[in-house]
């Protein structure tokens, strides 16, 4: 099939359309209610987010994509309660949130485990913070380690684990506090491609087993399409919702689907959207295009 024959990404196969209908009938666990964020500096203001309105349904998997500077980090920090909104509000299960809370768990990009605690104690940390006594916290931690397949590493320390394993512990620790929503901020972007795919599959397996709603920020369009039920596309300056895409892929997802017409059409559409924001992109790379590298070698023969 040639490129111009690719199916319209909006055409959902019947099973996916039915699943989307079911998801939409569920309550919204997380509501982003007309959220705006302005960073005021001495000389100017940056409108990082403007009037973001979006609801995430129970057990839905939403990915947020957009070019650098479109407000992805600001949005997830607001959802986590680490940043205040300028306008609008965030609701979890219909209740406005002010600041961080146990109803929202977070997994960051870099490994954030406590290096002086073993794996089990790292997972116990969030449970004990909730007031659970130690023996029960240990029992629950072991259960979560089983969920992420690391029960045999309970007494290992973070530095003894690979990057992927450390992120699995971070996921277990976040889930152990029994949040309603799991917020993931570029959580797999420090991993190599193979480990990343494994982690994506692990995450979807875990998500299928438990009552958790996921919001996942990523730069990687393949990752967004592979994981999400819906993709929220943000455009920069100011950060606004450009489009919400319903991913036309059946579940359970398999890596082979990345070569399907539906996947490729969705990716082509997303790439086109993000390319169209070009003129508004973040200015951090200013000058990169006309940068000329000075010649730092004396070898100038024709074997270049
Ligand atoms: N603390 C801050 N003070 C001032 N401006 C900020 C602050 N944090 C973010 N911004 C600005 O808000 C806008 C959105 O930034 P944000 O980091 O949320 O974007 P992003 O999409 O996460 O970018 P990236 O993909 O590069 O991480 C940018 O213009 C950024 O410069």
Fold and architecture overview:
By secondary structure, the protein is of the alpha/beta class. The chain folds into 2 domains: 3-103 and 181-283, P-loop containing nucleotide triphosphate hydrolases (Rossmann fold, 3-Layer(aba) Sandwich), CATH 3.40.50; 113-178, no CATH class. Helices cover 33% and strands 22% of the residues. Strand 9 (230-235) and strand 10 (240-246) form a beta hairpin. The longest helix has 17 residues, at 193-209. The protein starts with 13 loop residues before the first helix and ends in a 28-residue tail after the last helix. The mean pLDDT is 91. Adenosine-5'-triphosphate (ATP) binds at residues 39, 46, 48, 66, 68-74, 239. This is ABC transporter. Belongs to the ABC transporter superfamily. It holds the Pfam family ABC_tran.
List keywords for this structure.
single chain, 304 residues, alpha/beta, Rossmann fold, 6-stranded mixed sheet, 4-stranded antiparallel sheet, 8 helices, 22% strand, binds adenosine-5'-triphosphate, ATP hydrolysis activity, ATP binding, nucleotide-binding, ATP-binding
Q: Helix share of residues? A: 25-40%
Report how far the terminal alpha carbons are from each other. 39 Å
> How is the biggest beta sheet arranged?
6 strands, mixed
Shape: globular
The total count of strands amounts to 10
Q: What is the top-level CATH class of the largest domain?
A: Alpha Beta
Provide the CATH topology of the largest domain. Answer: Rossmann fold
Q: Superfamily at the CATH H level of the largest domain?
A: P-loop containing nucleotide triphosphate hydrolases
Strand order of the largest sheet: 6-7-8-3-9-10
| Structure ligands | adenosine-5'-triphosphate
Q: Indicate the radius of gyration in whole angstroms.
A: 21 Å
Beta content comes to 15-25%
Instruction: Please give the CATH architecture of the largest domain.
Output: 3-Layer(aba) Sandwich
Q: What structural category characterises the helix and strand content?
A: alpha/beta
Mean pLDDT: 91
Order of helices and strands: HEEEHEEEHHHEHEHEEH
Low-confidence stretches: none
How many structural domains are formed by the residues? 2
Pfam family, one: ABC_tran
GO molecular function: ATP binding; ATP hydrolysis activity
Family: Belongs to the ABC transporter superfamily.
Keywords: ATP-binding, Nucleotide-binding, Transport
């Amino acid at each position: 099939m040639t490129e111009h024959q690719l199916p319209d990404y909006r055409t959902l196969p019947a099973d996916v359309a039915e699943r989307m209908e079911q998801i939409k009938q569920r309550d919204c666990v997380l509501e982003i209610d007309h959220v705006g964020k302005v960073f005021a500096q001495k000389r100017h203001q940056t409108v990082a987010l403007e009037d973001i309105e979006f609801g995430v349904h129970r057990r839905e998997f939403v990915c947020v994509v957009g070019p650098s500077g479109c407000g992805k980090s600001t949005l997830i920090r607001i959802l986590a309660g680490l940043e205040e909104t300028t306008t609008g509000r965030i609701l979890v299960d219909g209740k406005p949130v002010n600041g961080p809370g146990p109803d929202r768990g977070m997994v960051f990009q870099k490994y954030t485990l406590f290096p002086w605690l073993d794996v089990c104690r790292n997972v116990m940390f969030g449970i004990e913070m909730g007031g659970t006594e130690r023996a029960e916290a240990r029992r629950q931690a072991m259960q979560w380690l089983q969920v992420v397949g690391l029960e045999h590493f309970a007494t290992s320390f973070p530095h003894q684990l690979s990057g992927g394993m450390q992120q699995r512990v971070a996921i277990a620790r976040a889930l152990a506090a029994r949040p309603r929503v799991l917020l993931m901020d570029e959580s797999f972007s420090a991993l190599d491609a193979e480990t990343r795919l494994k982690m994506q599959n692990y995450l979807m397996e875990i998500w299928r087993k438990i009552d958790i709603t996921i919001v996942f920020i990523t730069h990687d369009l393949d990752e967004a399409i592979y994981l999400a039920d819906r993709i929220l596309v943000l455009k920069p300056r100011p950060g606004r919702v450009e489009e919400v895409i319903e991913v036309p892929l059946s579940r359970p997802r398999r890596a082979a689907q990345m070569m399907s017409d539906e996947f490729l059409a969705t990716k082509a559409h997303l790439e086109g959207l993000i390319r169209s924001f070009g003129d508004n992109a973040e200015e951090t790379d200013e000058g990169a295009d006309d940068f000329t590298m000075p010649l730092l070698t004396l070898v100038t023969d024709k074997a270049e």
